[in-house]
């Protein structure tokens, strides 16, 4: 079943309809391109919004073949070079953490299953306690903010049954 255009008895469905639409758009763009103030490519900004446009005249056959008329070809815009992240088999986790204030010291408990004592790095850098530990394909990392007035000497570490106890003496 096809529909006929009332004015010219042409088939207006399917490919014939698309060709008719394309011809109409092509004619419109050709008329618009004749105006001196409307280039074939442009960029307009208004009220914080940006509109970029470009149009070219080509036949449906050229469109189907993916060709553009030679005078219409625009140089490809420069894309910023993207850096791809390196794939790794190491899984980074944040350990479960508890913090206790025991009068003259702060006590932190970090759950680090499968980690050996020699694979733990725990440092106090100003007001940040940094913990890094590696176990096979897992990397545990945690940064904890500590008020500078509370942080005193280097942390004391004790690892027992996958739980790291970190003690920080308070400043007097």
TrEMBL record:
Check the record and name the Gene3D superfamilies matching this protein: 2.60.40.790
Name the InterPro entries for this protein: GvpH (IPR008633), HSP20-like_chaperone (IPR008978)
Record SUPFAM superfamilies:
HSP20-like chaperones
Concerning Pfam families, the annotation shows: GvpH (PF05455)
- Write out the ranges of the annotated region (Disordered): 66-85
Protein name per UniProt: Hsp20/alpha crystallin family protein
């Amino acid at each position: 079943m096809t529909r006929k255009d009332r004015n010219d008895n042409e088939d207006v469905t399917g490919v014939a309809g698309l060709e008719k639409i394309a011809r109409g758009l092509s004619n419109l763009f050709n008329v618009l391109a004749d105006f001196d103030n409307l280039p074939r490519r442009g960029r307009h900004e208004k009220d914080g919004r940006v509109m970029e446009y470009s149009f070219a005249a080509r036949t449906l056959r050229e469109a189907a073949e993916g060709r553009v008329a030679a005078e219409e070809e625009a140089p490809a815009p420069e894309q910023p070079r993207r850096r791809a992240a390196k794939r790794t088999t190491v899984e980074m986790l944040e350990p479960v953490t508890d913090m206790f204030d025991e009068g003259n010291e702060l006590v932190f408990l970090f759950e680090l299953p499968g980690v050996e004592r020699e694979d733990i790095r725990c440092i106090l850098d100003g007001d940040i306690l940094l913990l890094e530990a590696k176990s096979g394909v897992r990397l545990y990392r945690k940064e904890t903010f500590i008020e500078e007035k509370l942080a005193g000497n280097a942390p004391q570490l004790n690892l027992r049954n996958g739980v790291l106890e970190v003690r920080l003496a308070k400043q007097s």
